[in-house]
Amino acid sequence: MIERYTLPRMKNLWSDENKYAKWLEIELLVCEAQAQLGNIPKKAVPQIKKKAKFNPQRITEIEEKTRHDLLAFLTNLAENVGKESKYIHLGLTSYDVVDTALSLLLKDAGEIILEDLKKLSLAINKKAFKYKNTPIMGRTHGVHAEPTTLGLKFALWYSEVQRDIDRLKSAIENISYGKISGVVGNYAHIDPKVEVYVCKKLNLKPAQISSQILQRDRHAEFLTTLAIIAGSIEKFATEIRNLQRTEILEMEEGFAKGQKGSSAMPHKRNPITCERLCGMARIVRSNALASLENITLWHERDLTNSSVERIILPDSTSLLDYMLVQFTKILENLLVYPENMLKNIDKTKGLVFSQRLLLKLTEKTSTREKAYELVQSNAMRAWGKGENFKKLVLEDKKIREYLSEKEIEGCFDLGFYTKRVDYIFKRVFGKTSP
Fold it and tell me: What is the model's pTM?
């Protein structure tokens, strides 16, 4: 498990103590159900509850001999409970307890991540409205395309995070299932009413059908959802990294007082946290692939998924929790340079207004191809020689046959590219102001 990047809530969730506590809760609920059905003495249940305690260190000692974690846990319980321990785990198989507990852990982990996503959503929302009408160069293929606004960039991120929230809610719903159905899932040694009782108490749903385990498509859906969310974070962080390039410098990851960027170059201010998050996204993605491979197991079960899940489930949830919290901090401390955005829009000396000019010319000329040729000839000259595109257009006699100076000037109006911002914000946020 990646301890260094595990935040306290997630660390406690995946601790052995919490796992054993979930196991104990399930075993005690099974005893309650069995007593209600008359399968064990009702008077035994209070005694079991009173004496049922576990010691993680003792469980580890026992497991070194048994090489079976749940048996070690049950042995430790028996040491503390005494003669009534014979009623514990009656008719169950290990994964009745382990898988049902795992669903509880994943559900809790999912709720932590869902809370993280909502906080990130709020941070993006604030940035979107703050920079709603701040002009920035839009780029396709890494090359200047047309102006847009920084607020629209953030609005795009916000919309994606809403989809991430919906995906995660669905994944939590589909992992919130338990099974108490015995060694091959046929309830041969356990009444299905026990499963219904236990799952209801745990706020889980009983699986419609199971083998010895819950089927791993549920876990794969959960992990692939985490991978998509990690992909969103990587996408956002990559945008910040690109816009922090010295040649662009339109926004920058916050740089704390006393922070050092390089052992050799005192001037360096690097987007190190964004880079770290991009690297972590690769781990979450690769873990999702392992979860997909876990779907295929031999017959009613084998152990190939178990060892994998002991790594990928704590690691993926812990990493994504860390990534979301860190990226929210990045946004809150983000340095934004609107003046550099305007400089970059002007860097190509008007070339980014070429489509506006093309469309205006197309209205007046006989064909679009002719209009395109007139605009491109000036654009290529401006590109190649670094000349001012608008000046070239104003001086082009062929273009002036169709367009007046006022019409040409209108084609270079930056405000033209922000006229639909309110419309987009209304669709994304349901409103046009904070």
Answer: 0.94
